[in-house]
């Protein structure tokens, strides 16, 4: 045992030493042939330029990477802390496929990484790609949406979701480069760049310097489409268009919160269709409701670039067939969720009474993008599956899943008419939620927990959809699904839908700790649930579970088994032949 412990200690020390120097892209990176990326080496101490040697497959790096790197004698962190020297080369490309071993020697520091550069098919497999992402989409969301919208009789679903019959499937690993847990920024970034990155980062490798906009960049899928094709690009979300998922289609920042800067990056790429919330970051700071720190009017800049503007569903419909690019901003922040927008008229619907839903936005996006004879890439996000799962508001999260599935139905109808279209449906991460059984108000007594039915006592919920719109006519039926999270802050479980507005499970006390929201304490039958997260947590968090990806159409055969999120990019790139061997 002593020998084993000694060996373990030695291994740990060596592993720590090996991490002293960091090379970006990281070891085992997969890189699309011809795709520009930044190369950076971070040394853990200050050295002289002449003491640094970098080779690629045994050759001087300049011969292979095609440029001379900038030597930074000393990088500094917060409070001017000395971090060490660095080497930086931006915008390099490697055209020849194969494995590349990068070795760095700087005095007694050494580091080696290996990259794989890959080509794609010579010819595109599909003309169009529709990438539909349910933010936080977990298996429980899918199951609950199916039961709530279609019903179940004698153990069999009475209908199928649109996503159910997509014929290709894979499990997708979501972890970040710096943690097993993950967020929407690094996960969508991996899908859209083919490179994994750190939590909160988009389109970059997260380096050690405090600045968030200078980190080593990698090309996004939309940028590659712009560089190599004449295809159109569309982004649709029910969140702010600067939020992590839509931002990752085009953006580069270590901090997903750089929303004002992300608006500028959206303008740089100029997607032909951009629909969602988030107008507060388009308005100059003098405009009421603005969240910018400057007076730049990005709505005016987009209009100067030829965009038509829509601010509600009537204007969206009026612009459905118009020529030119389309900017739709329907809320200063995140758009209201379906339950509040369409049924309960809660949330901020009184201030924004005419918001379109995801289905309408998806239809308009497809109508406009399909006018491009060269095809398109469209990203559609069901944003608030996640935004309602965080506060443990499961009824709203499930209704959002139903809306997302109806948007998938729009995509599938389009694919029937345009079979040269690849559809991809997935989540970026999961939530720790499961369906436990049902809550039956007809059971005797006043204790709500005694009305929870499990196993045979669960029976079946009694949701109805008599008007055939795909949504339950009411969510507060007498026997309803009981969803429960495996994580969260202190809160009160009421066992009922929140009809007065989205659930706020916890609020801050005078110590800045999150405690159970007393607003729900006196709801009949409410039960206090002790949290299992740090007291700094106001809501539930993401889970590390694999997400499920489903796909149909040309190129879908690339999805199978287990894939990392960064592998998904490779399938997308292959579908559009973005890494085809260049002959000119």
Automatic annotation (TrEMBL):
<protein>
    <submittedName>
        <fullName>Alkaline phosphatase</fullName>
    </submittedName>
</protein>
<comment type="similarity">
    <text>Belongs to the alkaline phosphatase family.</text>
</comment>
<feature type="binding site">
    <location>
        <position position="243"/>
    </location>
    <ligand>
        <name>Mg(2+)</name>
    </ligand>
</feature>
<feature type="binding site">
    <location>
        <position position="386"/>
    </location>
    <ligand>
        <name>Zn(2+)</name>
    </ligand>
</feature>
<dbReference type="InterPro" id="IPR017850">
    <property type="entry name" value="Alkaline_phosphatase_core_sf"/>
</dbReference>
<feature type="binding site">
    <location>
        <position position="429"/>
    </location>
    <ligand>
        <name>Zn(2+)</name>
    </ligand>
</feature>
<feature type="binding site">
    <location>
        <position position="245"/>
    </location>
    <ligand>
        <name>Mg(2+)</name>
    </ligand>
</feature>
<feature type="binding site">
    <location>
        <position position="390"/>
    </location>
    <ligand>
        <name>Zn(2+)</name>
    </ligand>
</feature>
<dbReference type="Pfam" id="PF00245">
    <property type="entry name" value="Alk_phosphatase"/>
</dbReference>
<feature type="active site" description="Phosphoserine intermediate">
    <location>
        <position position="184"/>
    </location>
</feature>
<feature type="binding site">
    <location>
        <position position="428"/>
    </location>
    <ligand>
        <name>Zn(2+)</name>
    </ligand>
</feature>
<keyword id="KW-0732">Signal</keyword>
<keyword id="KW-0479">Metal-binding</keyword>
<dbReference type="InterPro" id="IPR001952">
    <property type="entry name" value="Alkaline_phosphatase"/>
</dbReference>
<dbReference type="GO" id="GO:0046872">
    <property type="term" value="F:metal ion binding"/>
</dbReference>
<dbReference type="GO" id="GO:0004035">
    <property type="term" value="F:alkaline phosphatase activity"/>
</dbReference>
<keyword id="KW-0460">Magnesium</keyword>
<keyword id="KW-0862">Zinc</keyword>
<feature type="signal peptide">
    <location>
        <begin position="1"/>
        <end position="20"/>
    </location>
</feature>
<feature type="binding site">
    <location>
        <position position="135"/>
    </location>
    <ligand>
        <name>Mg(2+)</name>
    </ligand>
</feature>
<feature type="binding site">
    <location>
        <position position="135"/>
    </location>
    <ligand>
        <name>Zn(2+)</name>
    </ligand>
</feature>
<feature type="binding site">
    <location>
        <position position="381"/>
    </location>
    <ligand>
        <name>Mg(2+)</name>
    </ligand>
</feature>
<feature type="binding site">
    <location>
        <position position="542"/>
    </location>
    <ligand>
        <name>Zn(2+)</name>
    </ligand>
</feature>
């Amino acid at each position: 045992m002593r020998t084993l412990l000694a060996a373990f200690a030695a291994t740990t020390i060596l592993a720590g030493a090996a991490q002293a120097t960091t090379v970006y892209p990281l070891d085992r990176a997969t890189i699309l042939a011809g795709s520009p990326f930044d190369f950076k080496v971070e040394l853990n101490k200050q050295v002289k330029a002449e003491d640094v040697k970098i080779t690629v497959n045994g050759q001087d790096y300049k011969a292979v990477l095609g440029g001379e790197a900038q030597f930074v004698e000393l990088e500094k962190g917060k409070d001017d802390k000395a971090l060490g020297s660095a080497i930086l080369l931006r915008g390099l490309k490697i055209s020849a496929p194969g494995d590349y071993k990068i070795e760095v020697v700087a005095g007694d520091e050494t580091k080696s990484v290996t990259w794989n550069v890959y080509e794609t098919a010579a010819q595109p497999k599909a003309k169009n790609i529709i990438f539909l992402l349910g933010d936080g989409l977990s298996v429980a969301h899918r199951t609950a949406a199916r039961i709530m919208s279609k019903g179940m009789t004698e153990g069999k679903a009475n209908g199928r979701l649109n996503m159910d019959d997509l014929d290709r499937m894979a499990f997708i690993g979501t972890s970040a480069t710096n943690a097993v847990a993950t967020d929407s920024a690094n996960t969508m970034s991996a899908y859209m760049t083919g490179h994994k990155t750190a939590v909160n980062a988009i389109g970059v490798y997260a380096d050690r310097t405090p600045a968030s906009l200078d980190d080593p960049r990698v090309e996004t899928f939309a940028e590659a489409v712009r560089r190599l094709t004449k295809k159109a690009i569309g982004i649709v979300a029910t969140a702010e268009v600067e939020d992590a998922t839509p931002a990752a289609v085009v953006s580069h920042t270590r901090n997903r919160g750089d929303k004002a800067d992300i608006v500028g990056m959206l303008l740089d790429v100029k997607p032909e269709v951009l629909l969602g919330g988030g107008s507060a970051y388009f308005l100059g700071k003098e405009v009421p409701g603005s969240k910018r720190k400057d007076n730049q009017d990005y709505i005016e800049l987009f209009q100067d670039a030829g965009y038509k503007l829509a601010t509600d569903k009537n204007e969206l419909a009026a612009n459905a067939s118009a020529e030119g690019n389309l900017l739709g901003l329907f809320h200063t922040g995140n758009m209201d969720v379906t339950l509040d927008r369409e049924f309960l008229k809660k949330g901020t619907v009184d201030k924004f009474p005419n918001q379109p839903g995801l289905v309408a936005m998806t239809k308009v996006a497809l109508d406009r993008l399909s006018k491009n004879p060269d095809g398109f890439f469209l990203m559609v996000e069901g944003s608030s599956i996640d935004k309602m799962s965080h506060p443990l508001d499961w009824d709203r999260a499930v209704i959002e899943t139903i809306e997302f599935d109806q948007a998938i139905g729009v995509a599938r109808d389009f694919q029937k008419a345009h079979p040269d279209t690849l559809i991809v449906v997935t989540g970026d991460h999961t939530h720790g939620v499961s369906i436990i059984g049902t809550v039956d108000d007809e059971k005797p007594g006043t204790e709500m927990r005694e009305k929870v039915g499990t196993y045979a006592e669960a029976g079946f919920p009694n949701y109805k959809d008599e008007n055939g719109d795909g949504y339950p006519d009411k969510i507060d039926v007498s026997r309803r699904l009981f969803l429960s999270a495996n994580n969260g802050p202190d809160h009160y479980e009421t066992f009922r839908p929140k009809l007065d507005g989205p659930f706020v499970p916890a609020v801050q006390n005078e110590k800045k700790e999150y405690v159970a929201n007393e607003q729900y304490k006196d709801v009949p039958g409410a039960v206090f649930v002790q949290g299992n997260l740090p007291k700094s947590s106001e809501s539930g968090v993401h889970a590390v579970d694999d997400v499920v990806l489903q796909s149909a159409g040309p190129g879908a055969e690339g999805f199978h088994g287990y894939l990392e999120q960064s592998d998904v990019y490779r399938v997308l790139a292959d579908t559009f032949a973005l890494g085809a061997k260049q002959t000119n």
